[in-house]
User: What shape does this take?
Amino acid sequence: MKMDSVSGVTPETSLQRQGVDRAEVKGSEQEARQADEVRVRQVDAAEKSEAKALADQDAADIKERLDKIESKLAQGGVELKFKLREESGELQVEVLDAASEKVVRKLPPDELIKLSASMEEFSTGFLNRSF
Assistant: This one.
């Protein structure tokens, strides 16, 4: 047990003199830890909410810009459609036949986007395994 070199009193004795026992100190420490954990969770939730709001704003901003590009290209007789694929977050361009409005080509092709998603899923699953 540590003893204060000046007063010759141990920390426990000092607390007992003040009418505080060990259980009260431990309880207070535990309550403080729990309060800190709650604050950390609240900050984490606020940060996640803010990040989602920024991502949503960015997606809306990108969509607005792509719509402007589409309209400018349509004025020049070129038919392109820009799509932001929600599931992958990738940008895909569709080249359209101006007369029939049919899709001539997609860049990148749907198959390549699916392949990319499959590879990402595989690598994530592979790396998350415990050996």
The mean pLDDT is 76. The chain has three helices and three strands. Strands lie at 80-84, 91-96, 103-107.
